[in-house]
Design a protein that fits this description.
By secondary structure, the chain is an alpha/beta fold. The protein has a domain of about 45 residues. It is built from nine helices and 15 strands. The protein is globular.
């Protein structure tokens, strides 16, 4: 348990105490200098120096289908072929001391963590510094349509009901930024004709784009990206379990099924592929922009059988979220208070003693909150 508690403490300090984040992680998107100007046009496929292919749609860069890339992410994918993880960066320079324990964050990372805890996948990204959230602060864009608000709302409830992931409704919070550090990390649910999201907390205000009139599972999937999950069908062991029917996939969409080449620092929740994951596409799609024949599968299992796209979180989706998140109650002080139900990473519920011991550990030995009056009102609404 201790191996990932460090990140929760750090992120509490980032989100509610100091709200520090690097300006390099702002949501500006870059034009890669290695790409010829002729390729810089809407909906163009761009092959980066790493060999990875991204799709440029307007000012956005999309990777593996629906993953939005920030400037730093695009640079990393261009140079290395994957999104660089925070433990590979000199994060000591901007994090300093933990405001709760007053100890060096680097020292706590070494003491309370191991290398396996720094990156994860189910297939997921890194629950590392400034990439996971303590609570996912969110807002609805002012013009977000009622149908999109409804599925975003239901998706939030689904994640909270089944996992330790918690969301902070910031729609009525006037303070949007820190006078020194800029915009607070926040997800903005936004109207679009495409579904996409950044992977993990990118810093500042980041969008989850949603199409109109669709099933809530689409929003559950995009939130999965925002908290740190990649696609299951892009795992580096994918070809051991799945056949991709490229002959039925149109060229502009074939790179959506590229394998993530990275083989180190990956922490899968199972040895194989989770065909029940919310993060895997189904065998079929009705999108005729993507496939030639919607009656033929895009993907099959090795035995030729097919699967339907999941509409809910799978066991392994929950395990991933429960391993790297804690159900924190928002407060206006520095105390880290946990909800009564805290899931372990095997999806069982902690006993009261386990929960209080953990809460005490998070608060330098104080297992009892100083005052319940310091809790913030946090109600989700459509």
């Amino acid at each position: 348990m201790k191996k990932y508690i460090f990140f929760q403490i750090v992120l509490f300090s980032i989100l509610f105490i100091s709200c520090k984040f690097e300006k390099d992680d702002e949501m500006k998107l870059m034009v890669d200098p290695s790409v010829p100007a002729s390729a810089e046009k809407p909906d163009s496929l761009i092959t980066l120096p790493s060999g990875q292919v991204v799709k440029k749609v307007g000012n956005d860069y999309l990777w593996l289908g629906d993953i939005l890339l920030s400037e730093s992410d695009l640079k990393s994918v261009s140079e290395k072929g994957y999104i660089e993880t925070e433990e590979e960066k000199p994060y000591e320079k901007y994090l300093g001391n933990n405001p709760i324990t007053h100890r060096s964050l680097r020292e706590e990372a070494i003491e309370n963590s191991n290398s396996d805890a720094l990156i994860t996948a189910s297939v997921g990204v890194h629950p590392s510094l400034q990439r996971t959230w303590l609570m996912v602060r969110y807002e609805y864009a002012p013009d977000l349509t009622p149908d999109r608000r409804q599925i975003a709302y239901k998706a939030i409830l689904h994640w909270e009901k089944n996992t330790n992931v918690r969301f902070l409704n910031a729609n009525n919070i006037k303070e949007k930024s820190h006078p020194r550090w800029g915009d607070y990390p926040c997800v903005i649910f936004t109207n679009s004709n495409k579904n996409n999201s950044y992977v993990g907390m990118s810093g500042g205000r980041q969008v989850i784009n949603l199409r109109s009139y669709q099933h809530v599972s689409a929003a559950i999937h995009e939130i999965g990206h925002a908290i740190g999950l990649y696609h299951e069908h892009c795992a580096n062991n994918r070809d051991n379990y799945i056949n991709i029917n490229y002959s039925n996939i149109k060229p502009a969409f074939r790179h959506d099924f590229d394998i993530q080449k990275r083989t180190t620092g990956i922490h899968p929740m199972s040895d194989g592929i989770d065909f029940n994951s919310i993060m895997i596409y189904g065998s079929y799609t009705g999108d005729t922009e993507a496939v030639y024949d919607p009656n033929k599968p895009m993907m099959t299992k090795k035995d030729g059988s097919t699967w339907e796209r999941s509409e809910v979180l799978s066991k392994f989706d929950k395990m991933w979220a429960n391993k790297f998140y804690l159900p924190v109650i928002p407060r206006n002080d520095s105390y880290i208070e946990l909800e009564k139900i805290v899931y372990k990473d095997d999806n069982t519920i902690m006993s009261e003693r386990e929960r209080l011991n953990l809460q005490g550990y998070l608060n330098n030995g104080r297992s009892t909150p100083p005052s319940p009056d310091n809790r913030l009102v946090n109600v989700h609404t459509p």
